Amino acid sequence: MKLYPLQFQPILKDRIWGGTKLKTYLNKPISSEITGESWEISTVENDVSLVANGVLKDKSLNEIINDSPEKVLGTKVYQQFGKQFPLLFKYLDAREDLSIQVHPNDALAAKRHNSFGKTEMWFVMQADENARLIAGFKEKSSPEEYLKSLENKTLLSILDTKKVQKGDVFFLETGTVHAIGAGTVIAEIQQTSDITYRLYDFDRVDAQGTTRELHVDLALDAINYNVVNAEKKYSKMVNTSNAVVDCNYFTTNFIPLDGAISVTKNGQSFTVYMCVEGSFTLTYQGEEYHYKVGDTVLLPAEILEFEIKGKASVLEIYIS
Question: DSSP character for 95?
Fold first, then answer.
């Protein structure tokens, strides 16, 4: 099977806090007024991505990995994860604040849910004036203070709120209490996991008048009560892979593309590009593939040499 740069059909998710920017800003084919998420590359159970382009169109990512695991995933990734695709890529539109939540680490997630934990990263693609998000506590806290603040409805007062703008990056290790704020469009990179413990949901109800489930007790031993510094500063040298996040689960670089660059890979990991602004063309073995803002492309690990050119801001993600 000859592999090539793969795009996937977006898996669109309506959310109580969602809006319409995934259509107006990122050209996603949404028909709802409350679409909150576009899952770009996923192997979460019941939400497995299907190829959108080329001869493999409509095949699932799991099928392709199963047929050629090392060629798709890379030698190192296959050795570490077997045939599991270890990451999940999304775009999010927060018309309203998301719930305040936390994700368990690998050990807790494996024990309780037979799942990976959920370390994640946010790249702010667009932010309305005065848009904010929550990442961790203002000061060192405790289970007792957390429970008391929930009871008194003062949880927001002990959490660290950050004003955000386009280009800001936040790296959220498991255990960090967090929430995406209203008026933001986010590119999210995370471990393959859909395990979320919801702490507080602003007493919202859905169209049927139902509140969403909270997981107050489950969160108690999942929370990191220490102060964290989640915001990441990074350089923006043109036509260079500028390091943003380098952790055990993924490496993310930021490429301000203005012109053409040649890229060489080592075959140890797949590479994903998320176009967060502008447009670019990828040339591989004489074939051209075109991408615009909101597009995500998976380059199987066997694709070792290619060129990207255009005027764009691109996130480059792989496992190192």
Answer: S
